[in-house]
Amino acid sequence: GDIKIAQMTNEGQTRCPRGAAACYVPIGKTMFVDKSAELGVLAPILFHEVAHAMDPELDETLRKVQAIQSSLEKKSEIIINQVSQLLHLGVMELTGSVFTDKDMEDVVNTKLMGTEALEVERFKTERLAYDQSFPVESELVELFPDYYRASMKKLGYRIPHNFSDNEIISRYGLNESIVQKYLHNSCKPLPAL
User: Fold this and answer.
1) Which of 68, 79, 163, 173 is 20 to 30 Å from the Cα of 134, by its Cα?
2) What is the rounded distance in angstroms from the CA atom of residue 180 to the CA atom of residue 165?
3) Is residue 6 within 8 Å of residue 31, measured between CB atoms?
4) Does the global pTM surpass 0.70?
């Protein structure tokens, strides 16, 4: 009962990849589905989206990133207020040059940590969903080869298709350098909350 399933709406279309027949939006725990899509095409896509909804790390990462962003806002506010009081200037009168390198570095590092964590999670959740839905697609194609042969022409790619890491990066517009850092285990881990 935690996950809502809703008809694809304007909200779903703006939050989902272009042309997607379904997508899961973790904020609000809603799976948007184009109920007019052919069931045979929709079935493997739905399984992919269910894999997102069941991803145990997704909610935890989003919670941590939200806490980091909140911390960043508080840290920035404290630094701005301290400098404002020290210089006897209003907040709107401050310029970038009045902040120390350490102040700026702390704020930038916190911001980058949150951005990196979101990109890594976007990649990880897609990789997991494609890996889990590939066997389902394979079985469906094996059971209904004629149907899926015709469907593949409409979709423009072959089914079953387990997207490579580079295809996922490209398809979802992910930051390749961040994903490569993750794949080479060189991302900073999120702090425990």
Assistant:
1) 173
2) 9
3) yes
4) yes
